[in-house]
Amino acid sequence: MIIEPRTRVIVTGGASGIGLAVTKACLERGAQVAVNALPGDAKASEVIAGLKATYNETVVSAFADVSDRGAVEDMITSSARQLGGKVDLLVNNAGTSNTRDPIPMSDLDKMTPEFWGAIFSTNLLGPFWCSRAAAPYFSDGGAIINIASIAGLGKSASSMAYAASKAALINMTINLAKALAPHVRVNAVAPGLTRTPWTADWPEARVSKSLSSTLLGRWVEAEDVAHAVIMLAENPSITAQTLVVDAGRGYHE
């Protein structure tokens, strides 16, 4: 697959952060993109309207909460129809975190059933519902890219639940690759500290500490992750893999 004007793409959480960078990277290559966001999200609606003004008919609105199985099925069906009945690339980017209020791993009391449920229903079940709903619409040679995190590989995380959800997503990536082979490839990208709205209000001391733990001493930009997504989407020989994009953090800690 080459991302080009005939390519049909769905990006969940596609109006902000990494998802928006992926959306723009695909649109700039001429692809048609269904941009998913939460219903009632005024900021996302504004962003999608701006994308439509710039890229015209190549942008499709796709509002749904990815943790809601029924809403996902309706969203994927509607998006596929508006994209011409087929899907070439699904990017499972939508996720949730407590990154602004980290929970120490030792604080087990804050790991309530409600907290676990909220994290897993979006970060793990969301990508599964989207992938399952999209499976019948994939063209031969299609691809799914899951946005994971280095937290899922044992690095520091905002909470135990977040890290576990991303570890499970990495494992599910492998199993989806087995389930959908040979017609659809499934891979993941695991970013490190990335400059997004999630990290925009971090205290300077926290940012400095995080950046000092990388070999390159720099943020990962959302566009860096988008480039990795495009590479995995276009390489026909890569499946069941997780590509780390973390400015060398994995080799510093």
UniProtKB/TrEMBL annotation:
Family statement: Belongs to the short-chain dehydrogenases/reductases (SDR) family.
Superkingdom of origin: Bacteria
Name used for this protein in its record: SDR family oxidoreductase
Keywords, alphabetical: Oxidoreductase
Entry annotated with the keyword Iron: no
InterPro entries for the chain: NAD(P)-bd_dom_sf (IPR036291), Sc_DH/Rdtase_CS (IPR020904), SDR_fam (IPR002347)
One of the record's GO molecular function terms: oxidoreductase activity
Entries under CDD domains matching the protein: SDR_c (cd05233)
